[in-house]
């Protein structure tokens, strides 16, 4: 008989602390985790009624540094994101001890359905969790609650490191795991720093069943970092005023006085507000609420986060959420004048949050990703001292390629398909596959072993404009394929020998877009841009069943631009940071009434700019895949 959960708990906590300690030890080393800025979002969504002055002011922000005190939306594993925030980099300082409030609402139901419904014109696609989400979730619940505690423990340790001495953390759970996590929180933050066990009673009038009481509340555990913490008592309006006795004492006689100063009297007052206690009577989001409800599973009402943020932070404070869901914490923090950091492993979460913040006209913020995600996965799977050549050999073998002789093999990355004149080049997970990589592969094709007829490049991470680069090379004997992003997780679980028949290398997505015109008049410029076509990567790479895959293929063939979820324009792209000064996305009906499609042509008003512009158009499809087109030297017509 195996150990009970209570017997396993000390070992789980000790292992989690060791894992967190390893992360902290690596903060100063060359292998520290970094963040890559994918976009500086300067919210200016497309509308019919354009505010030229607002657009001009925001366009001027293009010249601003993308670093500093900007809020951050981060896509990726929150353990890696926290490691990067603690480490800092050459542009931003460490956030260690600088976060004033952390609120997390981690998944706490092993049987929950985290599929995403994507409503497209004429079809609804039922997408299962992405590969990253799927493996993270399976790891979280592989051994039930024990696995869940193993996941949450090192993350809570890092959260404590991020908290300021006057900071607080709120952990939102329910009956599934709440009581077990309470023990872990006591160990990490200290029992004396446990402040409140808040009951969120959402009075949904659930009927339960014949043998149980209805479950109508969640737990929110409130811990402080130290005895000196920020707290602002909150009040709420009573449904009906009540009459209360107010006792007023004389400082001289120690006796009660009334308003006239007579001894022995009390004052009666009508109380219209009450101090909020640890039972919060706040309704869940209702289906009829079209202004706030984003139809996102597990979404929480803004009133809940408004109460937490108002109670434990002041204006200008820094708020963090590492399981953001639909972005409620970031949205409320922004509205209340707080800076924020929001992270999630789910692409749908970061996509919804970005749109939500643009919708509310947020201040400029950064959209970032883990800069070396695949490298961190490789270190986890193959050990901290893994060699790129070892991984390349595994990838080539799974693709069916035989390695070239050692003297001809660059870092072990080259192979050939048996009985063909086809060279295969497996790129490194530690860098982006760019047009330079493709040219290098063309060189290998022409020079290795007397020359090959064709070269296939297998890549992990690609520059956003790689599709445009492939088209511009115009080489029919160059093929570029995507290494499955879940490959390292699958290797860890099954081993390479069991994967050969299952691994599928997919084609890349590709955007076609361009500048229609650039006109100048009276100190302003009008830039017109348009989307022309979009080619999605192989549907086999998306986690769909056969029926949904067939419906997706039909849309790809008949209306490919209907797959675009979000697109943005940087009219002065510097090649480093994409600064979006104009955005449109599905659900933005400010220009038309079609919530299922983006507009495909845009008119952008800009300050006058001397000389040619370098325009970057970036699009994200409904599955979260990015593509971009860069148009160099756009002159005034």
TrEMBL record:
<dbReference type="InterPro" id="IPR002052">
    <property type="entry name" value="DNA_methylase_N6_adenine_CS"/>
</dbReference>
<keyword id="KW-0808">Transferase</keyword>
<dbReference type="InterPro" id="IPR029063">
    <property type="entry name" value="SAM-dependent_MTases_sf"/>
</dbReference>
<dbReference type="Pfam" id="PF01555">
    <property type="entry name" value="N6_N4_Mtase"/>
</dbReference>
<dbReference type="InterPro" id="IPR002941">
    <property type="entry name" value="DNA_methylase_N4/N6"/>
</dbReference>
<dbReference type="GO" id="GO:0032259">
    <property type="term" value="P:methylation"/>
</dbReference>
<dbReference type="GO" id="GO:0008170">
    <property type="term" value="F:N-methyltransferase activity"/>
</dbReference>
<dbReference type="InterPro" id="IPR002295">
    <property type="entry name" value="N4/N6-MTase_EcoPI_Mod-like"/>
</dbReference>
<keyword id="KW-0489">Methyltransferase</keyword>
<keyword id="KW-0949">S-adenosyl-L-methionine</keyword>
<feature type="domain" description="DNA methylase N-4/N-6">
    <location>
        <begin position="99"/>
        <end position="346"/>
    </location>
</feature>
<dbReference type="GO" id="GO:0003677">
    <property type="term" value="F:DNA binding"/>
</dbReference>
<comment type="similarity">
    <text>Belongs to the N(4)/N(6)-methyltransferase family.</text>
</comment>
<protein>
    <submittedName>
        <fullName>Site-specific DNA-methyltransferase</fullName>
    </submittedName>
</protein>
